[in-house]
Amino acid sequence: MTRRVHEVMTENPVTVDKLTSLAEAARVMRDADIGDVLVVDEGRLRGILTDRDLVVRAMAENRDPAETTVQAVCSSEPVTVRPSDDVIHAVTLMRRNALRRLPVETEDGELVGVVTLGDLAVEQDPGSALAAIAAAEPGT
What we know:
Elements: H1 5-8, E1 10-11, E2 15-17, H2 22-32, E3 36-41, E4 44-50, H3 51-58, E5 75-76, H4 87-97, E6 101-105, E7 111-116, H5 117-124, H6 129-135
Parallel strand pairs: 2-3
Antiparallel strand pairs: 1-7, 3-4, 4-5, 6-7
Helix pairs in contact: 5-6
């Protein structure tokens, strides 16, 4: 039987408002021990900010992290999946779009989770090196 996204996703994704400073977003990522935050505006998904965005689109461009908002450097118009989509669909989207994470939204746009490359590695090949890394406790 085909597994569904809601069975492998991480629930309660970490979000920041689009007007959050890059410095604050970086602290949120550090404190949650994650490499991305979902960017929202009035509860609706507007983008994804990754640790790579912070380096390539902000630091490398000499942007002031205390003054620059996440909306200025985040990836906008994110590709999303629904909780009821099958996992193969999520894998296909990630491959096609060279993505490491997909926000999960309901039909009415409610943000309910995120499915990551690590989540899928654990699901598809639990014995793989990537699955082992994804399943490891932070800091180990």
